[in-house]
């Protein structure tokens, strides 16, 4: 992928849609973090990661494809560099959330070793069934390209 | 109980990162990256004989610490950076400190917190800044 092709990804929109975090799904994910399920139907905050992507109709595989990486093996690799998540309301199980978002930033960096890493920033917003803003997630992914 | 700048938060400890939890998380998140569940791939990518934990799980340990401190619906915002890998069998500890106090909408008391997830040797795998509703902790005046 050329740098121009990378920059051209800014503005790419995901299909968007709705997603409901199921009780079983929340329980399994919460237990994977090493704690028991939260009370009163609250979803674990990290559910925002996969729920926002599922609702926006984008998978990690789609992100790899978008970045021109069919599989994260060999000398290339993908790494999740950071998040910025905002919760205007707590996430809940069995609540249909509407998600929309896309690529908001792209940057190519070359380290002193000559290795190139492309950064892509995705933002997805959530609204509840009443149309009230619920949250926003911004995730930064890095794609190692090997030496230039 | 009052909250003051400089107060410590945590610790919250994951005694041994479980590869089964990574497999569950990979399935739920539809994460195809095999470094989380295929030892051969992890080895080929230079991670040795242990698979690599997902970022959301690493952040989840920090989140668990905040939820235990301030309540199950207390997190308003959290920003994080992943600065080192966490692998199968690792012992990691989440810690934090209160760095600021402010009011949100409806005079909700909020605490700004610097948090991190550290390995036993002190290496930080996650650094995070969180804005947390401390209504359950701070006296209402």
How would you characterize this protein structure?
The complex is a heterodimer of chains A (148) and B (141). Chain A has a single domain, classed as Roll (Thiol Ester Dehydrase, Chain A). Chain A has four helices and five strands, in the order αβαααββββ. Chain A has helices at 3-7, 23-32, 47-56, 60-66, and strands at 17-20, 77-87, 96-110, 115-127, 133-147. Chain A has a five-stranded antiparallel β-sheet. The longest helix of chain A has 10 residues, at 23-32. With 141 residues, chain B is of the alpha+beta class. Chain B has a single domain (8-133), classed as Hotdog Thioesterase (Thiol Ester Dehydrase, Chain A), CATH 3.10.129. Chain B has a five-stranded antiparallel β-sheet, with helices on one face. Chain B is elongated and about 55 Å long. Chain B starts with 7 loop residues before the first strand and ends in an 8-residue tail after the last strand. Classes of the chains: A alpha+beta (148), B alpha+beta (141). The interface between A and B is large, with 39 and 37 residues.
């Amino acid at each position: 992928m050329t740098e121009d092709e990378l920059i051209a990804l800014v503005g790419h929109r995901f299909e968007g849609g709705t997603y409901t975090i199921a009780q079983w799904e929340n329980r399994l994910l919460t237990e994977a973090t090493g704690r028991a399920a939260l009370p009163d139907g609250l979803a674990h905050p990290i559910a925002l990661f996969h729920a926002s992507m599922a609702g926006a109709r984008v998978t990690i595989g789609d992100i790899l494809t978008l970045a021109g990486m069919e599989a994260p093996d060999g000398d290339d690799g993908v790494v999740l560099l950071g998040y910025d998540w905002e919760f205007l309301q707590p996430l809940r199980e069995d609540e249909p959330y509407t998600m929309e978002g896309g690529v908001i930033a792209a940057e190519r960096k070359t380290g002193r070793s000559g290795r190139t890493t492309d950064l892509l920033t995705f933002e997805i917003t959530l609204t509840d069934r009443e149309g009230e803003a619920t949250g926003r997630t911004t995730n930064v992914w890095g794609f190692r390209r090997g030496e230039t | 109980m009052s909250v003051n700048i400089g107060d410590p938060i945590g610790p919250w400890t994951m005694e041994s990162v479980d590869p089964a939890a990574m497999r569950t998380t990979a399935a739920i998140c539809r994460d195809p990256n095999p470094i989380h569940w295929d030892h051969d791939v992890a080895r080929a990518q230079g991670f040795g004989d242990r698979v690599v934990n997902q970022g959301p799980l690493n952040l989840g340990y920090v989140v668990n610490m905040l939820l235990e401190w301030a309540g199950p619906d207390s997190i308003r915002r959290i920003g994080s950076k992943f600065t080192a890998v966490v692998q199968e069998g690792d012992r990691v500890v989440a810690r934090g400190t209160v760095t600021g106090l402010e009011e949100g909408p409806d005079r909700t008391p909020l605490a700004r917190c610097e948090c991190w997830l550290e390995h036993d040797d002190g290496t930080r795998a996650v650094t995070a800044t969180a804005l947390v509703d401390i209504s359950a902790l701070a006296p209402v005046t």
